[in-house]
């Protein structure tokens, strides 16, 4: 059964995800527009910025375990879940593109992306709660 605390944690998780998305997008924008950093490297750098910010916020405020899980254990787990989430995102968008091929323009892709965002957010939250920030 899902307790009230889980809903509060999910709200924090989503809010901090939005903060991380803004930081990642801002970093990408700045690197692409104001430096000579290649866009692929800008993508990688901005991913790490966003993931690190999300980890720090979620570690301290969402899944506050007060030192039960070492950051040396939690951070690699956090990145593993994010990499899995990225792969799941790509798969859902790919599958949606195939399934919704009859929809005009790129609307099928956007529908798939919307489904993916919701699915990956929930799966990531559960994995972070049950594995990333759980004591070893």
List the topology elements.
Layout: H1 4-34, H2 39-62, H3 71-99, H4 107-132
Helix pairs in contact: 1-2, 2-3, 3-4
Structural class: mainly alpha
What's the rounded overall pLDDT mean?
87
Shape: globular
Number of strands: 0
Percent strand: under 5%
Task: Give the distance, in angstroms, between the N- and C-terminal Cα atoms.
Answer: 23 Å
Q: Give the SSE order as H and E letters.
A: HHHH
Q: Which residues form runs of ≥5 with pLDDT under 50?
A: none
Give an overview of the whole structure:
This protein is 81% helix and 0% strand. With 136 residues, it is mainly alpha-helical. Helix 1 runs antiparallel to helix 2, helix 2 crosses helix 3 and helix 3 packs antiparallel against helix 4. The radius of gyration is 17 Å and the shape is globular.
Key phrases:
single chain; 136 residues; mainly alpha; 4 helices
Short synopsis of the structure:
The protein is mainly alpha-helical. Helix content is 81%, strand content 0%.
